[in-house]
Each structure stands twice: as structure tokens, then as C-alpha cells.
Amino acid sequence: MGLLENKVTVVTGAAAGIGRGVADLFAREGAVVYLLDVDGAGAEAAAAAICKGGSTAHAFAADVSRRETIEPAINDALERYGRIDAVVNNAGIYPRRTFEEMTEAEWDETQNVNVKGMFHMTKLVLPHMRARRSGKIVNISSVTFFKGFARLTHYVASKGAVLGFTRALAREIGPDQVCVNAVTPGAIETEGEKIHANPDDIAKIMEQQCLQRRILPIDVARVCLFLASELSDGMTGQTVNVDGGLIMY
User: Fold this and answer.
1) I need a surface site. Which of 60, 79, 130, 202 has the fewest CB within 10 A?
2) pLDDT at residue 7 greater than cutoff 80
3) What separation in angstroms does the CA of 218 have from each of 70, 132, 234?
4) Mean pLDDT of 62-81
5) What is the average per-residue pLDDT within 59-82?
6) How far apart are the C-alpha atoms of 55 and 33, rounded to whole Å?
7) Backbone torsions φ then ψ of 83, nearest 5 degrees
8) pLDDT digit string (tens) for 75-108?
9) Is 80 exceeded by the pLDDT of residue 120?
């Protein structure tokens, strides 16, 4: 029996990176996994790999900033299985841009994906979790909120909003036995990092870590597994760093 045996779970931004790592681990732990990503083909490929390994997965192309693209996956899960046990709000974007160069459209896009996407997903699943008096919501924020990073003002602001959302909602729905927690990853070795991050900057960050190695998607996925399982039933409104000891608080 896995930690998520027969649990119905949803992971956004699941085609690659942290989301893919979470989806793969959840499947290995017995969960039915719904993989949502704006990259529909990538989500399909990830789901196919999970199914080939003997687990159950469903892929949906979805832009989390638009509620109507998420609803088909949620409706399918509820019609097919009758419940959603855990959600990992992972989808996010982090384009580099100085604040002076940043356009209002770029600011809005970052907030729409990183914050409004979490809002939409939670609005869709929460009524069902509250009715069952059971559920786990895991929101992916970022250690950048604690440190502050140049050329990421829009991103860091959005990730601070994720933590505020997590804490306030945990207070509100705690009486219904629904847990809401957040994870703050550090510099994670992903495909997206290679596109957006400067290798020299990554090296400098790693030098500040207690653990002198790259932190991987599986490192974040294991914490998400803990927060999505019964092991964390006594936790809500909390933030867990997965950054190799980059910061401590």
C-alpha cells in the first residue's frame, strides 16, 4: 500500500519539472493522477509514461489562468471517481525582467498564472472537499519570497501572494478538516531553469546552500507527498522550505 493508495489527485504544471516529479511520485504511491498543463502534448506524454508503469493517470491541456480550461479535468475526476483528495497548485511562470523594463502585460500574466491559477483551481475543488470534510491543498511558492531576487519582482510578488493565500485559507477552512500548506522550493534543477536562469547565478546560490548539491524535482515531490498524505493530518497553514538549507527561519 502506498501513501496515496486509491487517492484522486490533481497536479498543475505537470508536463515537466517539479510538477512532473510530483505526478510521477504520486502515481508510484498509488494515486490516480490528473496531469494539467498548458503543454497538452507534454501532459499526455507524462500521463502515458505513468500508465505504462502500471498506474492510472489522465492528462488535460489547461491554462490555469482561465477557469474554463480547468473545469473539464475537475468534472471528469468527480464524474469518474466521485471525489478529489489532493491538489498540488504548481503551475507557474518566472520570466526574467528588470522592473523598469517590465510591462503591465508581463506583470498581469505572471499574477494570472501564479496566483489566479491557484485561485481558480481551489475554487473548483474546495466545495467537494468541504462536503466530504477531507482534502489536502498544496501550493507551490518559492524561497525567492524570503530572499528577494533582482529581475523577478513580478514573480516574487506572486509567490508572496501564494503564502498569504495559504495562511488565510487554512484559517477559514480548518473547521472543515481541509488542510492547506505551501512548499517553497529553492533553485531546482529543471528544464525550465536551463531556459530562464543564468548558470553563474545558480552556482552562486548553490554555494550558499548547506547541502552542496543540486536540489531536484524529486526532493520537492517528496515533501508534496508528505503534505498530500495522512502523515501531515496535523498540519495546515504551514510553509516548508526545500532549498538545500539556503535560508532558515
Assistant:
1) 79
2) yes
3) 25, 30, 23
4) 98
5) 98
6) 9
7) -170, 165
8) 999 999 999 999 999 999 999 999 999 999 999 9
9) yes
For the chain, what is the HEC assignment?
CCCCCCCEEEEECCCCHHHHHHHHHHHHCCCEEEEEECCHHHHHHHHHHHHHCCCEEEEEECCCCCHHHHHHHHHHHHHHHCCCCEEEECCCCCCCCCCCCCCHHHHHHHHHHHHHHHHHHHHHHHHHHHHHCCEEEEEECCCHHHHCCCCCHHHHHHHHHHHHHHHHHHHHHHHHCEEEEEEEECCECCHHHHHHCCHHHHHHHHHHCCCCCCECHHHHHHHHHHHHCHHHCCCCCCEEEECCCCCCC
CA angle 147, 218, 159 (to 5 degrees): 30
Cell 469518474 found at? 80
Residue 201, burial from CB neighbour count under 10 angstroms (0-12, 13-18, 19+): middle
Average confidence score pLDDT of the chain: 96
39: closest CA among 67, 63, 70, 56? 63
Amino acid at site 121: M
What is the pLDDT, as a whole number, of residue 181? 99
Active site residues: 155
> Do you know the residue count of the chain?
249
Cα dihedral 182, 185, 189, 193 in deg (nearest 10)? 90
Q: In the prediction, which pLDDT does 53 show?
A: 97
d(CA 64, CA 54): 28
**pTM of structure:** 0.97
